[in-house]
Amino acid sequence: MEYYCRLMQQGEMITVEFPDVPNAISYGHSPDEALFNAAEVLNGVLESDVGHGFPLPEAFTGPGEGLHPVAVAAHIVVAWEIRRLRGDRSQSEPCYG
Description:
Elements: E1 2-10, E2 13-17, E3 25-28, H1 31-51, E4 67-71, H2 74-86
Antiparallel strand pairs: 1-2, 1-4, 2-3
Helix pairs in contact: 1-2
């Protein structure tokens, strides 16, 4: 799973924004640093959201000019899938029949 971000030069800094995750904003001094920081902030925001029971945002933005894919950490995707599959059941309730 991945989300796409946009890099924007602002003075000497490069700002990173995720159209589908508006609360994930970062920056860097170079494109490489900005993309590294983008992965850190994206995964931090999503991990917090999943931990608080919020769903992962829909990834509507796809490949395009000026957009960069950023992968979601596997443990976040797994945690979200488990939460989604369990539905309203607590962790002490079995997932079967």
